[in-house]
Structures are given as C-alpha cells and as structure tokens.
Amino acid sequence: MEPDLFTAAEEDRREKDPSSSPLAVRMRPRTLDEVVGQGHLLKPGSPLRRLVGEASGGPAGPSSVILWGPPGIGKTTLAYVVSQATNKRFVELSAITAGVKEVRAVIDGARRASGGYGKETVLFLDEIHRFSKAQQDSLLPAVENRWVTLIAATTENPYFSIISPLLSRSLLLTLQALTDDDLRGLLHRAVADERGLGGAVTLPDDAEAHLLRIAGGDARRALTALEAAAGAALDKGESEITLSTLEETVDRAAVKYDRDGDQHYDVASALIKSIRGSDVDATLHYLARMIEAGEDPRFIARRLMISASEDIGLADPTALQTAVAGAQAVALIGFPEARITLSQVAIALALAPKSNAAYLAIDAALADVRAGLAGPVPAHLRDGHYKGAAKLGHGEGYQYPHDLHGGIAAQQYAPDAVHGKRYYSPTRHGAEGRYAEVVERVRERLRGE
C-alpha cells in the first residue's frame, strides 16, 4: 500500500465520524477561499487558482509546485485543497521516512490510476530538501510527463537544497508567516464551525491572546492547543476556556507582558540594568520573559548593542563586536534558535567589565557644542588642498604625525573655545585601564600637561 495515501475507505471513515480526526485536520480548508493567510498567492488568476482549474480560458496550471516557508503556515493544507478542488487522489510522502522505492511506488500507482480510472494524483512531498540529489532525480520523469501533480514543501532555501532540473520544471511559491490576525480568524472559525468545536465553548480575550503567543505563528500548534484546552474545559463542565485552564493544558504560564505598554519598557529596562549591574542570572530571567512573551528578537538585539557601548565601552572593546555579531545572527536565523544567540550575548555583556566613560564623553562634548562652545577650526587643520587655500593660511604649520617620533605632534587640535577640555575620563576597569594610561601620556605630549 502506498505510504500515507488517503484511500476512499479512509475518507469515508472520516466523513462518517469526523470527531475521530484532530481539530487541525477537521478544520483543514476545503477550498482556496477558506485558506488563512497567503493572500499574495490566492489572487484571481494566480498559479494556485489555475492549478485548481479556476482560470477561464487562460493557460493550464503548473504540473509541479514547490512551496517554501516556515512550518505550520499551510503548505500541506494547500496541497490537500488542490487535490480536493480537482478531485484528484492525494498521496502524502515525507522525505524523512520515504525513499526512491516509495516514490516510484506512488508514481507507478498514479500511472495505473490515471490509465484505469481516469483519476489523476497529487503527490505531496514534505521536507523535500531532505532528499538526496539521486532521490530528487527520481521525480523528474513524473514531473516532465505529468504522471503526477507534484507539490513539494520545504523550510530550507530551495536554491541551495533542491536540484536545478527540478527547480526549472517547477513553480516556486514563497509562503509568508501567518500573522496574529490570520490565526485569530482561524481560532474564531474553529470555535464556531460545526466541523470544529461547534460553539461548545467560548474563548475569552485573555486566553485567546495567550494562545496566539504560544502558537508562534503556527496554525497547527494553535489548533492543537485549542482542542486540548476545550477538552479540558468541557471535562470540568465549563463552557469557557479560561486562561488558567489553557495554562494548565499547555503547561505554559501566560507572561504578563504588553508589547505596546508599560511591561514592554519595564522589562526591557530591567534587562539592561541587570546587565549594567553584572547580575547574569537576573539578566537571563528578564531575557526569558521577553522571549516567552513574543518580543521581537531584533528589538532585544538592538538593546544589547546599545548596552555594549553605553555600559561596557572600552572596558571590553570586544563587547560591541559580540553584540553586533549577535544582532546579525538573530536577523538571519530568527526564533526559536535566536534565543541561544541572545543568551550568549546577554551573558557576555553581564559578565564583562563595565565603563560608561564613552557615554559620558560624547554627552559632555555635545553639551559644550549645544552651549555654543564651537569656534573656528584652527588654521593649520583646515583643508589646504584647494586653489587659494595657501593664501588664506589654511594648512600652514600643520605637522604630519606619521613623520614624527612616536607618531604624536604637539600641536593644537581643538578650537580655542574648548582647548584643554577633558571629555574622556577612562576608568581602570578591564581593558580600559590600558586606555587610561595611554590617554594621560598622549595629553602630556600634546598639551605639555
């Protein structure tokens, strides 16, 4: 028997007893119009619309489609809808467990079914990026000859993980992550629809918000948690899925954190102050609260970069490099893996020696500039390269430091208004102790101090 084939007997069983299927399966869309999200792929005349025969007089739809996007956003659903809308057999294989033998069995079965019964086959191949080059090669004849309608799904960049011959014969569609509004609409439908919970329970706003947080943009996860919580509520004789019931069911407490309110700023402030205070454990606590509440990882990374300069500075010059590298990594990988990178950066900053000297230095200099202490640039520092500059005395008397012993020229650099001002007062913490010694020696040479 072909792996994971939805046979007629199986479909009959599910139709007669739909409650035997998980909620995520029962709420699977029957048409493209019921699909949540992916509006950019569902416009009239789009390839998916043509694939299910909705185009009028236009070219036929593609025979092979590759769906690229994160998990839980509807790749399997789209494939199933195509098979239902076109009245085709639906065969699902996973590249994790299937091999060339299973693929060939499906293709042979598709050819027999097409020839004997006139019913074509949709082959949905999940995780196609896990197939080797040879395994992907085995799909080419079926795609070229249209023995099956291949819909392959991948969470990896297909330009790196799928062979060129298959890519060139397929239409690549990029799926976008589901928004909270997308999932909210799906939850409302699941609660009310007879295929779902049929109005047996209600979902209050606080429980819904928590459900959206723990779903993390994954529709399957959202429906699975909803079904479990609804079952728990009904077992208690309750018609409402309370926040406490949801927390008990999914074993995940709701974090009191409003991304647009005080909690957002309070927790972010506590994170930075814990880093400044070198309390690594408190730092990790607040970081965990922000992650668990669904805070944008890029916001966290930006705060860590600021802390690296404001609170550590030259006491550990590598701190900013670490924070910047962390921010770049977070932008590339996203959650959930980005939590590890953020943890690494936060720990490094919390345990680094601290100095706010760079922060105080620029603010002191800015204060003087804003107070009007600017004045003209000394004549010997002005640009002397343009015609007529020499007549104005620009650049005259300038000493080139590289030509001098020690690379330091004892000349005035600052305007008269701030000449002799000390903005930078290095600490003796960490690596900045070395800068403290250097700056004193340099000031003595420059100013005769």
Describe how the helices and strands are arranged.
Blueprint: H1 8-16, H2 23-26, H3 47-51, E1 64-68, H4 75-85, E2 89-94, H5 100-117, E3 121-126, H6 133-137, H7 140-144, E4 149-154, H8 158-161, H9 164-168, E5 171-174, H10 180-192, H11 205-215, H12 219-235, H13 243-250, H14 262-276, H15 280-292, H16 297-312, H17 318-333, H18 338-351, H19 357-370, H20 432-447
Parallel strand pairs: 1-4, 1-5, 2-3, 3-4
Describe this structure in words.
The structure is a single chain. The protein is of the alpha/beta class and 449 residues long. It has 4 domains: 8-174, Rossmann fold, CATH 3.40.50.300; 180-250, Helicase, Ruva Protein, domain 3 (Orthogonal Bundle); 262-351, Zinc Finger, Delta Prime, domain 3 (Up-down Bundle), CATH 1.20.272; 358-447, post-AAA+ oligomerization domain-like, CATH 1.10.3710. Helices cover 49% and strands 6% of the residues. It has a 5-stranded parallel sheet, sandwiched between helices. The radius of gyration is 32 Å and the shape is elongated.
